[in-house]
Amino acid sequence: MPVPDVVACRLPGAAVRRAFLQHTALILLVLAGFYLLSPRAALGALAGAAVLAVAVLAIAYGFTAHRVWVRLSAAGLSSTGYTGRELSIPWSAGVHIRATRRSGYKGHSVVPAQYVGSLAAGMHTIYLPAPITAGPEFAAAIEAWAPAGHPLRELVKNAASL
After folding, report:
1. What is the pTM of this model?
2. Backbone φ and ψ of 130, nearest 5°
């Protein structure tokens, strides 16, 4: 598979739909529980609350589906941090990778070696959701650009074996 100059990685649609359906079911179960605990509760009010909650959830997941979580290029990997700043880690930089969970998705945090153990680590961390690291585009980009022995190569190899 040819690799473009920059690979922009988004969450696969199936992963976003699965999370959306799980959260929608949870909302409906909670509202059904309210109704069962208080049968005099206005069914219309609960239905309205359910519609509003699911609509807000749908908008949030729409943004999630279109968000570029990480970009890979010949220069390294980059992402927008939770503070809105652009984060970049060159392939030549030492990194520490640890399993974590954010935004409801399992994944891995990539921290530049100079920030490991410091308070600033969170502001310099790039998060890679597991559905992205298991994808063929991510694997092809890592194969094309990451130097031999880079920790992300091991991550992709382990994701492929799952």
Report:
1. 0.77
2. -55, -40
- Supply φ then ψ for residue 48, to 5 degrees: -65, -40
3-state secondary structure of 134: coil
Place of tokens 């410091």: 118
Locus of tokens 């598979």: 1
pLDDT per residue as tens digits for the range 71-91: 999 999 999 877 788 999 999
SS3 137: helix
Cα distances (Å, whole numbers) of residue 144 to 5, 91, 95: 11, 12, 18
| 109-143: pLDDT as tens digits | 999 988 888 777 778 889 999 999 999 999 999 99
Cβ-in-10-Å burial (0-12, 13-18, 19+) of 161 comes to: exposed
* Residue 119: half-sphere exposure toward Cβ, Cα within 13 Å: 0
3-state secondary structure of 119: helix
Q: At what angle do helices 43-66 and 13-37 cross, to 10 degrees?
A: 160
Are 108 and 133 in contact by the 8 Å Cβ rule? The answer is yes
